[in-house]
Amino acid sequence: MKKIEPILDPNEIKDSIALFKQGNVDLDAWSTLTNNLYSRNSLLSFQNDWITFVNYCREVNVSPLPAAVTAVRRFVEHAAKTRKAASIKRYVITISLMHRVHSLPDSTRHREVRYTLNRLYQEKSDDAGQANAFMLSHLQALTAKLESSEKLKDIRDVLIWTLCFEGMLKRSELAALPYDAPRETDEGFVLAVDDQLIALSDDAKAQVEKWMTASGIFDGPLLRGINKHGHLSDAPMDHSSIYRVFRRAATELGLEGSLTFSGQSPRVGASQELAEAGKTIKEIQHQGRWKSPAMPAQYVGNKTASSEAMAKFKRKIEKD
After folding, report:
1. 188: which strand partners?
2. Nearest Cα to 75, choosing from 60, 93, 96, 97?
3. Peptide bond before residue 66 is cis, with ω within 30 degrees of 0
4. How far is CA 193 from CA 26, 27, 286, 296, in A?
5. Structural domains in the chain, sorted by start
6. Residue 267 near residue 170 (C-beta atoms within 8 A)
7. How far apart are CA 251 and CA 260, in angstroms?
């Protein structure tokens, strides 16, 4: 965690607390709060995690800022029912950050919360296991089943599955996509992810165009939440929403109970498809934007290469 100077002026603290207790605060405010030290993707993660916590606090009628020790502990226990250890850890980091920046006692440091976290981390120690692969055949079956639907949620979800698979997107990258990330260039239809342009298929292009027409989006985030009434949110999708989209994929395919897809599943499946097509680990690493070849090597079943790559990557970090 980067060193962020806390707010010290009592009036500024009061105004900032009032703002962030609303939950959905724009990224400019987050950037100012964190002294402009974080990237857009990191700010999006903070924003999404904080919205999740504030929404929970509203449901149980407690204050999110400052948050009582019991409120934080119960939130952690609630999140643990559906979220993995990494997500819970990220939630706690965000809650801790918000309290420290506002010069408030950090409830996450209380022994009651730490004990609960340690217990949950032990129970979820297998979370690091590899996600089930979301393969091209899965994508094709889902597209065939839902492509004629005019429901906004169906159009969005098919686009999410397609972009995540073809672009090998991380959840944070998916959530951060602006409305103009898919674009036409001299080289064809592409998806802009940070400073990289990823080629998309004609099918993906058609799905993007269908989504833009159905949603009416012309600014802001490309992919957004949809409530139970079918109304589109202005806010980007959070990690919980993305998780539900991939859980839905298994249900639609009749695989619920035998396979569990997550936001990581398309990266696993795409890596395996590329390996089958003859791509090298280095080429897969580049296409998936990994810093090390360790993960793609693990995904395609090359455990020796994965172990060697991870050891090399760790040595590089220690040297740096």
Report:
1. 185
2. 60
3. yes
4. 21, 18, 13, 19
5. 10-127 (1.10.150.130), 136-263 (1.10.443.10)
6. yes
7. 9
Q: Residue 319 pLDDT > 80, yes or no?
A: no
Cβ(252)–Cβ(189) below 8 Å: no
pLDDT tens per residue, range 236-273 = 888 888 888 999 999 999 987 777 888 889 999 999 99
Query: What confidence score (pLDDT) does residue 50 get?
Result: 94
Q: 0.85 exceeded by the pTM?
A: no
State the pLDDT confidence band at 128, using cuts at 50, 70 and 90: very low
Cβ atoms of 89 and 76 closer than 8 Å: no
Looking at the predicted structure, is the pLDDT value of residue 316 above 50? no
d(CA 135, CA 180): 27
Q: Position 75: which residue type?
A: F
Burial bucket for residue 267 (CB in 10 Å: 0-12, 13-18, 19+)? buried
Contact 135, 272 (CB under 8 A): yes
Structure tokens at 131: 């996600």
Instruction: Give the whole-angstrom CA distance, residue 152 versus residue 159.
Output: 11
Which one-letter DSSP state was computed for residue 14? H
In the prediction, which pLDDT does 125 show?
A: 52
Mean per-residue pLDDT, 109-135:
75
* Residue type, position 46, single letter: F
Q: How far apart are CA 222 and CA 212, in angstroms?
A: 8
Pairwise pLDDT comparison (271 vs 129), residue with the higher score: 271
Residue 287 has a CB neighbour count (10 Å cut-off) of: 17
Q: What six digits make up the tokens of 179?
A: 């409305």
Strands 224-226 and 188-193: unpaired
| Structure tokens given for 189 | 């239809």
The residue assigned the tokens 């833009």 is 212
